[in-house]
Structure to design on (840 residues):
């Protein structure tokens, strides 16, 4: 097999472990120097390929690459940039192949969610059609946990751990003050379409009266009356109530709670949020003192509280992607398959990209309790192993030490630029 | 010295290390069994004394008490309840002394901030006046870091670490996506009157272009034009801008930014927040894509990322309080004194409560940079050692394991209740 170079890119919203996948790809590629020449990383994801901004990962020391394993966010830069369909913008695909050809790239590793799985598949199809063979392997990543064929998605377990730990800690805070202070605490978490992240908060609950007392899922239509009643009952029973709400929580008619139709002093549409909307409801209908938090990026960047299981899986899919490429595979994704035994175990198996692209995995209804406000035993069993284990990053002067890359760019070979 | 019982109570907003102080008090009291009989903890703080709801800490195992050291929030319950002045409500003080007398309490340990230092002092003064001697020792605690005579306040170092770590992590997230996505990220943190907590975010900055790029302090009048200009300059220079804002950020005329005068769809005053207000400003004046987070209780409950220095100091002040009582002291507070050497060191020394009560320590102006948007070298040197060291709690099934108390109440001795 002729020696080819490789290209790796990070795509979409970053996670606290996507760099662990990068670490898996790069370290494994370095073990196959007879087959893989240079490994380039796209500066800001696929845009780096279009602009011919290729970071030469070979210029980074083994120590720096190893440190990627414990570094959050996208070390090479990621992007929100979905390639259009082949019909709509053939020039983009042509440019990609032109750049790949110019840099003798024969392996394409794309680290992202559903959209990038689709792009990865298209590149594979197109390359064979255009007579320039590229093996395209998708490396799964998304905090949304919505990729099919894989039991879970790297990135999700760590967000799940962050949310469960934060719920437990803030719950203790509220419990200890509720006699004279805050009665209702609301934590808003990510999840526009599915309640995977909110559901994981349920792991914080050990006893019946433990928080979270209410979880709001996008899958369950929000009913103000039912919600208010549940809050009131909980405060009466426990003295306080902790609510974990998906940003995607919505009413029966599909209206997001975050779009509360509020306006600011200038009459502009108010920057919403599910948490403040729920707080307003609680204030109006019950008059309880409340507090709310919006974790936003903190939750998906929190490498300091990453799940060791998640880190291992993120690394493993990166490693497997390179091994698949070395085995001549194309248009596949390493998927995480859960063992059948009672004790949690997992293996990596290949999944065809045709079956991954454009398919969104929703949370099964039987993970959500009958009243729609919590998770079931089945849900608990699904979530629990994904947050298992700690993988503390190294600290210096009280702060986690994260990798700093040199980011040396490969010399451009094409005369023409490309506008992105 | 006749054997007396002791009373301990937690007061005001809880922290991630106030239970470490409780642990210091209880473990040390257990070493002085010849002088201290039972150690009662107030259920929900001082209210527990007024209601004669006394938790017998002697019923908790040594293992449970040791676990308090790594348990956030107020394990015995805290309260927001300020005793009125002696003139206004003598009945309250009389009731306290009645309860203390009935339970043979001769030692009063009060774990709180400025208000509780004042209460502690009053109880000491009153007890000698009423001929029932009680040694009242204040145990310092507050995330606000605003107590005088002590170099720092237990609880602050851990919030500072949480904020610095979160700023660094979210900063990496934004940096990796800014080319095509969010340009400005705002983290709102606690600090109604002083910018101590926001200032600590400055520890995340190593290089000139590192986040946080802008810190907003209550001490520096907010100037929209200047702020917008700084955001724009930062985005141009770094590609993105991370803002850490005190909840107490205010304009020159003393109006809180959080009180933005916004109304919801029903015309009600909108639940504010500095972060969404700043986001609106950025949207209107610059049009950048933004995201914002509001850490709220997560920051002060985050025992999982506590500062080891803070935990040690919290324990040490609890321990010293009991030792002071054993040495016959009264109306004092163990203060943390910073050593003069270049290497950080600290000792515990006694401070008279007269000089602690009703004095608020503001952040020195020379800790804030000239332009008002960052911290100086002096500020950095002050903050840095306070977040040093990690003190990871034990984990089980991926979650921190926090102490669970039995909370056995002492039998009531008074016939009459007391309405609080």
């Amino acid at each position: 097999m002729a020696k080819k170079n490789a290209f790796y890119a990070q795509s979409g919203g970053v996670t606290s472990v996507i760099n662990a996948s990068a670490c898996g790809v790069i370290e494994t590629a370095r073990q196959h120097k007879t087959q893989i020449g240079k490994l380039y990383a796209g500066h800001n994801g696929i845009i780096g390929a279009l602009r011919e901004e290729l970071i030469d990962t070979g210029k980074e020391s083994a120590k720096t690459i190893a440190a990627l394993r414990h570094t959050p966010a996208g070390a090479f830069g990621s992007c929100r940039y979905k390639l259009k369909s082949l019909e709509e913008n053939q020039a983009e695909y042509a440019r990609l192949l032109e750049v790949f050809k110019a840099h003798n790239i024969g392996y394409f590793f794309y680290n992202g969610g559903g959209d990038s799985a689709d792009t990865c598949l298209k590149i594979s199809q197109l390359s064979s059609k255009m007579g320039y063979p590229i093996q395209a392997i998708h490396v799964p990543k998304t905090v949304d946990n919505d990729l099919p064929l894989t039991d879970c998605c790297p990135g999700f377990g760590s967000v799940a751990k962050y949310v469960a730990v934060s719920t437990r800690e803030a719950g203790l805070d509220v419990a200890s003050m509720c006699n004279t202070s805050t009665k209702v605490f609301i934590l808003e978490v990510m999840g526009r379409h599915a309640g995977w992240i909110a559901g994981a908060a349920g792991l914080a609950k050990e006893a019946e009266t433990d928080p979270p007392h209410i979880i709001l899922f996008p899958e369950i239509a929000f009913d103000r009356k039912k919600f208010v009643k549940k809050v009131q009952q909980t405060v009466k029973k426990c003295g306080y109530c902790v609510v974990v709400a998906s940003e995607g929580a919505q009413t029966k008619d599909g209206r997001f709670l975050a779009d509360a139709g509020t306006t600011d002093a200038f009459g502009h549409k108010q920057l919403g949020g599910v948490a403040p909307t729920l707080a307003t409801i609680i204030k109006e209908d019950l008059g309880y003192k409340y507090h709310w938090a919006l974790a936003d990026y903190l939750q998906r960047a929190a490498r300091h509280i990453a799940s060791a299981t998640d880190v291992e899986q993120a690394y493993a899919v990166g490693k497997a992607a390179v091994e698949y490429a070395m085995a001549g595979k194309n248009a596949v994704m390493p998927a995480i398959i859960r063992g059948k035994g009672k004790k949690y175990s997992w293996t990596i198996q290949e999944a065809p990209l045709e079956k991954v692209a454009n398919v969104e995995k929703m949370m099964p209804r039987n993970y959500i309790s009958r009243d729609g406000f919590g998770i079931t035993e089945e849900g608990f069993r699904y979530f629990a192993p994904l947050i298992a284990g700690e993988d503390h990053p190294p600290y210096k002067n009280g702060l986690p030490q994260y990798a700093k890359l040199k980011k040396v760019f490969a010399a451009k070979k094409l005369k023409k630029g490309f506008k992105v």
In short: Chain B has 13 helices and 13 strands. Chain B has two domains: 4-142+305-359+390-400, 156-301. Residues 328 and 371 of chain B are 50 Å apart (CA to CA).
